[in-house]
Design goal:
The protein has 90 residues and is an all-alpha fold. The chain has three helices and no strands. The longest helix has 35 residues, at 5-39.
Amino acid sequence: MANIKSAKKRVLIAERNRLRNVAVKSSIKTALKKVLELAKGDDKEALNAAISKAYQLCDKAVSKGVLHKNTAARKKSRLVLAVNKIQAAK
């Protein structure tokens, strides 16, 4: 454990940031799963809204430094490919 006051503070801040990062990543995963679930249905409007929300969450995570920009781009690309594949299978 750290002995210096500033090092102790950094440990606390790092833990707080880690918890926030986990929450943001979890919300992105949830949004992606919701989009894939909606892709199986017939509601195009809800699907487009869910895709937009997933894109928004990914972009915000990049701007906050939670995700790397290429990681977010990969997630968005794979999401659209998966949705198109599900749509084509119907």
